Amino acid sequence: MTVFLLRRLLQAGGVVLVMSLLVFVGVFAIGDPVEILISPEADQIERERAVKALGLDLPLWQQYLVFLGKALQGDLGRSFVFNEPALQLILQRMPATLELALGATLAALVIGLPLGLYAGLRPHSPVSRGIMATSILGFSLPTFWVGLMLIMVFAVQLGWLPSTGRGETVEILGTRWSFLTRDGLAHMAMPALNLALFKISLVIRLTRAGVRETMLMDYVKFARAKGLSPSRVTFVHVFKNILIPVVTVVGLEFGGTIAFSVVTESVFAWPGMGKLIIDSINVLDRPVMVAYLMIIVLLFITINLLVDITYSVLDPRVRLEGKS
């Protein structure tokens, strides 16, 4: 396990270095923030002073080396707009995005696993066919349209749920969370469901496919031949094995949920990292854009590492391959 972790950490370090270069060059190429941040009425001396203060007077390769040196010290630059550390701005918004992504992932597992399990155990029943047909909607419907429909039905027509904002929050260890209050949960219900629709459909189909494949395995047939109850066969011999691909995909999708929550946060005015990056793109706030993308890269790498470790715990063959 130690060799496996060291190898994965070395790979992660190389990926972070390459991605930092790609992110920095990509953000540099999308536009000049001076044209937006500096007043057109400013004279040439003021413009040159502002450009030098922002560090934009250096060649690209020097800007990257300066960024890399500061990043190794935990400094990802200062926001051009807010004049605050970019990392601090993102970390202030991260709890809102994390609890939204966790809520969506939890909803996907709670809803998707039982439905997929039922559809796999009774594939020819009308209910199973209805579940699989409905799951297609989760892949097909655009997120922004579903969000608007949820607001129209549950907020405007029925008045059951609030349409925007994060609601009442509770501070724990210096961080504010909304899922610990009733008002916060009410505000979180629709955006979390909107973000979870694709994941629910994915979990349903993964679970169903895993159940159908596992039910044909020899150890399942042997368990049945021993006279074990159907519930024990299902939850001990089948369910544990189908969790391996589900955990892998859901873990990777969790990173995607955080990265691509931009649309949901914009529709529901959820004050998370996604809304911050949209505002930063509009004004070409490069440090915030670079910091956000680098944090997303680190999140993906960390999640991949955790998924690999969980995978090795669920499947001993992975540990044996690592030793060999």
Automatic annotation (TrEMBL):
SUPFAM superfamilies: MetI-like (SSF161098). It is found in: Cell membrane. PROSITE patterns: ABC_TM1. GO terms for cellular component: plasma membrane. It is a multi-pass membrane protein. Residues 94-307 form the ABC transmembrane type-1 domain. InterPro entries: BPD_transp_1_N (IPR045621), MetI-like (IPR000515), MetI-like_sf (IPR035906). CDD domains: TM_PBP2. One of its GO terms (biological process) is transmembrane transport. Belongs to the binding-protein-dependent transport system permease family. This is ABC transporter permease. The lineage of its organism: Bacteria, Pseudomonadati, Pseudomonadota, Alphaproteobacteria, Acetobacterales.
